[in-house]
Amino acid sequence: MAFNDDSFIREVNEELRSDQMKGVWRRFGRYIVVVAILIVVGTAGKVLYDYWDDNRSSGTGDQFLAAMKLADENKNDEALAALDKLEKEGHGAYPVLARMRAATVQVQKGDTAAAIAAFNEIGKDNAVPAAVRDAAKMRAGWLLIENGTYEQVSAAIEAMAVPGNAFRHSAREALGLAAYKAGNMAQARQWFQSIVDDTDSPRNVANRAHMMLDLITASGKAPAAQG
């Protein structure tokens, strides 16, 4: 799906001007999550690629690529079986990569609960490199926006919403969206404002944060930030 961030924001602003606030989250919320999670997946993919590149093992690599091909073809059960074998018998980085990919396949299958559990398990496994653990926690956090509570999202990723963490922008956005969805506008405002105030925030993330701050102000459920 082609998605233009600026045109999307303009459309939401038009919705605001027409005073149709009641349906804004219902109409746009899922798209906001989809756009943002693509960035999370891209960042996590870079982390996983670097990890793979440092731990290449050609024989197991061929098996991993074959499993990915099965997943790309929506042969999910076959892909999960191949990934399970890699997790148990693979070498180098591949057991960890197989676990991450298997969790993604669970999402593809529609078993979000199993995917969240798998990502959470990876995120807590101290045998897994820290960068990969963080990537897994972020995936769990984003899935929990639509499938859990604000408290669950916070437990998964709030520790990463701190200065210097590579995932802080995505973590803050996820926390803001989870708070917004839960109706906690004051908390949502704090998270989105932290994105706006961070000069290192990517432009598209900052744009979405500005849009959400506009939505919160228009709702009248949280006071505007004093500046």
Automatic annotation (TrEMBL):
Belongs to the YfgM family. The chain crosses the membrane at residues 28-49. It is a single-pass type II membrane protein. It is found in: Cell membrane. It comes from Rhizobium aouanii. SUPFAM superfamilies: TPR-like. It comes from the Bacteria. This is Ancillary SecYEG translocon subunit. Its main location: membrane. The lineage of its organism: Bacteria, Pseudomonadati, Pseudomonadota, Alphaproteobacteria, Hyphomicrobiales. Keywords: Cell membrane, Chaperone, Membrane, Transmembrane, Transmembrane helix. Residues 23-202 form the Ancillary SecYEG translocon subunit/Cell division coordinator CpoB TPR domain. InterPro entries: SecYEG/CpoB_TPR (IPR018704), TPR-like_helical_dom_sf (IPR011990), YfgM (IPR026039). It holds the Pfam family TPR_21. Signal peptide: none annotated.
